[in-house]
């Protein structure tokens, strides 16, 4: 794990990235904090060329995205060319559409459709599809299997990658460390956020400010050769730029510790 492997998830800054001017300012702030990479998600309708120019201006590598399911289904050629413009290998789906979530049959329909798209992305465009979980994938159906079990068992690891969101794993009652090892070899991008308790309710927190086992989590990520560590907070209880600074400092301190082992 190196500092150059840490990225900021732009969804955290969706309220600050809806226009070209806002995006440029956000990129500038992230670069000044110390980030050298971003995942593009939640930004406004900004031309891909402008996104690329501003990222280059501030030395930010676009390492992954989250894109709408409708674009993967209906606009995959244009979508792929945008990623090629950005030199971005990982094209992500940020969440399962509602229509597939309620049954095993729904998950299997999604798996069939997404598998065909992921194969096309890799074989034609050289891109890697990655799927980002929430907590609902861990609901158990009649045969005791979860939606995530079906996704893992019935997809091809060569084409269908996994992007674990560790907060949502924890929220679902799953063990993040166990799941990091479970998806070894098919997870190149991981989402890092912590979970704290406020007023007896779980809330999103900066890394090291919550109760998740991040010593064990980061060790498991290193052991399984995760390529990109993406800092994200869906909701921040302080300024988002301050939040990602705290998380980056936590990761830098962690790396200093392992370098002295």
Helix-strand makeup class: alpha/beta
Number of strands: 10
Strand percent estimate: 15-25%
The residue ranges in which pLDDT falls below 50 over 5 or more consecutive positions are: none
Shape: globular
Distance between the termini: 14 Å
SSE order, one letter for each helix or strand: EHEHEHHEHEHEHHEEEHEH
Helix content: 40-55%
The radius of gyration over CA amounts to: 18 Å
Main sheet strand line-up: 6-5-4-3-2-1-10-7
Task: Report on the biggest sheet.
Answer: 8 strands, parallel
Calculate the mean pLDDT score and round it: 96
Q: Please tally the helical runs, counting DSSP H or I stretches of 4 or more residues.
A: 10
Give a nutshell description of this structure.
With 261 residues, this protein is of the alpha/beta class. The chain has helices at residues 20-33, 48-57, 69-74, 76-85, 104-125, 147-153, 166-171, 176-182, 214-223, 240-259, and strands spanning 6-9, 37-40, 61-67, 90-93, 128-132, 160-163, 189-192, 194-198, 201-205, 228-231. Helices cover 43% and strands 18% of the residues.
